[in-house]
Design goal:
Helix content: 40-55%
Number of strands: 14
Distance between the termini: 72 Å
CATH topology of the largest domain: Rossmann fold
CATH architecture of the largest domain: 3-Layer(aba) Sandwich
Oligomer: single chain
Number of helices: 17
């Protein structure tokens, strides 16, 4: 890992120090994804089978996961693994159940009542990537809040393996979360199928879930189409930024950095520390620990985009973290809660030496579908409310109209919208009130 001293860098060098790995040429990705979406819209299931054979190397006759496949998946997963999934589901359920907002009803003035009611999204599509590793944890993070929100239709798509089956742990997690509608389709074509529907896969109103650049691009394209489906948030390659002072243990910081770097070749791990000695210790520990890990090819590439930055003090370190806006932010410092109030941009924050980031990935209760690539400046991680609509209601009495109507009419005339004004003044006339 490269070690950089923040105070020695000019502004362009600082921007470069906080730059993410390039995700490839956006225009090429967009063109490819547009072609995939068009094929799915035109040819439906036939396109899905062809694209699955092209990208996943397997030809499927049946896209839906059968009851027999669910049963085989249960038999393939150990009791210890099922127990771990159940505990994760319990914790995620507890935290996400507390997120629901109460309905609001308020008489803002006599005769004028305003309300906000909540309704679940009718049909949601949950995308669970496979890539270089199965992600049953992603099932939990998507399916639990969808169930808590009360979404009537919950459809899950996940890529098949070379054997033509969805990963057993993904199916078991889906079943434990109450989902029995799963399709063996991945990538941008899965997003297209969920957004527009095919003979096999129902159209949904909103698509959720992380993925690669093609999946993210597909979600954004279908969300921009009135005939498509909304999407949750930009969620791409994983990333972590650790803020550490001299109190931090180098081996733990290195382990946290490697835990995210192993996700993907485009993942990024950044250390911001106030101590030059710790920076060198962590860099050495990363190299030692890396040699003991299995995903060497991925780590070699992702660590090439990782770095250690030495800041003048903790206030400067947190400012660098806010500028970077990481998906995961670890405050590996003395009195971490003291510094929490200074955090402005982060998807999820981990306080202190024992708050290992993988706990959030799997089972602490928070959601691991988080904004990446700097989108934490404006987006939040997934929550139960993302699966719900907040609808406002107003009820005006005759007395309320008599009092408030002239205000609305005056504002309508101010904007030059005489039809707006007339919708008020005609009612006022019926009440015998002068507009």
């Amino acid at each position: 890992m490269r070690i950089l001293t923040w105070q020695d860098l000019d502004e362009p060098a600082r921007r470069a120090a906080l730059a993410r790995p390039a995700l490839g040429r956006r225009d090429e990705v967009t063109a490819s994804v547009r072609e995939i979406i068009a094929a799915v819209r035109r040819d439906g299931d036939a396109a899905l089978r062809g694209l699955t054979e092209r990208f996943d190397g397997v030809r499927l006759e049946r896209l839906a996961v059968s009851a027999a496949e669910f049963a085989a998946a249960r038999a393939a997963v150990s009791s210890a693994q099922i127990a771990a999934l159940r505990r994760a589901i319990e914790n995620v359920t507890a935290f996400h159940a507390a997120q629901a907002l109460p309905a609001v009803a308020l008489e803002v003035m006599p005769g004028v009542r305003c309300e906000r009611i909540l309704r679940p999204i009718s049909s949601v599509g949950l995308y669970v990537p496979a890539g270089s590793a199965p992600l049953p944890s992603a099932v939990v993070m998507l399916a639990v809040p969808a169930r808590l929100a009360g979404c009537p239709q919950r459809v899950l798509c996940t890529p098949p393996g070379r054997d033509g089956d969805a990963h057993a742990a993904v199916l078991v997690a889906a079943e434990l979360c109450g989902i029995d509608t799963v399709f063996k389709v991945g990538g941008a074509h899965a997003v297209a199928a969920l957004a527009y529907g095919t003979a096999s896969i129902p159209k949904v109103d909103k698509v959720f879930g992380p993925g690669n650049a093609w999946v993210t691009e597909a979600k954004q394209l279908v969300a921009a189409d009135p005939e498509g489906a909304a999407c949750d948030l930009p969620a791409g390659p994983s990333e972590v930024l650790v803020v550490a002072d001299r109190s931090a243990r180098a081996e733990l910081v290195a382990a946290d950095l490697l835990a995210q770097a192993e996700h993907d070749a485009q993942s990024q791990a950044v250390l911001v520390t106030t101590d030059h000695g710790l920076a060198h210790e962590v860099a050495d520990a990363v190299e030692r620990q890396r040699r003991m890990l299995s995903r060497q090819s991925i780590l070699e590439r992702s660590l090439a985009a990782s770095r250690c930055i030495v800041a003048a003090d903790l206030a400067g370190a947190v400012a660098i973290a806010n500028a970077y806006a990481p998906e995961h932010l670890i405050l590996h410092v003395r009195e971490p809660r003291r510094w929490l109030e200074h955090v402005r941009n982060a998807g999820s924050v981990f306080l202190g030496p024992w708050s290992a980031e993988p706990l959030g990935d799997y089972c602490s209760g928070t959601n691991h579908v988080l904004p990446t690539y700097g989108y934490a400046r404006a987006y939040s991680g997934l929550s139960t409310l993302d699966f719900m609509k907040r609808i406002t209601v107003q009820e005006i009495s005759a007395g309320g109209l008599a009092e408030l109507g002239p205000v609305a009419a005056e504002l309508a005339r101010l904007e030059g919208l005489d039809a707006h004004a007339a919708a008020i003044t005609r009612r006022l006339a019926l009440l015998g009130t002068r507009p």
